[in-house]
Amino acid sequence: MIEVECHIFIKKNGNCFLGSHKTELLNExxxxxxxxxxxxxxxxxxQHAWTMIVEMNRLAPSPLxxxxxxxxxxxxxxxxxxxxxxxxxxRMIEIQVNKLVSQINVELxx
Length: 110
Hints:
The protein is elongated, with a radius of gyration of 16 Å. The chain is α+β, with helices and mostly antiparallel strands. α1 (about 20-30) crosses α2 (about 35-40) and α2 packs across α3 (about 45-60). The protein has a single domain, classed as Winged helix-like DNA-binding domain superfamily/Winged helix DNA-binding domain (Arc Repressor Mutant, subunit A), CATH 1.10.10. A two-stranded antiparallel sheet has the order 1-2. A two-stranded antiparallel sheet has the order 3-4. The chain has four helices and four strands, in the order ββαααββα. A hairpin with a 7-residue loop joins β3 and β4.
């Protein structure tokens, strides 16, 4: 069986702005409300997760993630309204690409 597989990377000036790993991280942050919780759930280091967030925020015209430092009341991480919109748009692209890939795979294996 022949199969086409597609991975979506949205780039800005040659740098990866969004991809499946970054969108997974953003979704987990929405669920957990913390970067450390999201990193643990995805089994990646906190430093790697932090680096991904810094890179996305640097490339975006507006921050995707708002981080508050820890302290007496603890910190927190939340996805901005812009970040939520970007996630929704990425998901719409993903759905369309997956439909196309499915059609191609059906035609290849007739």
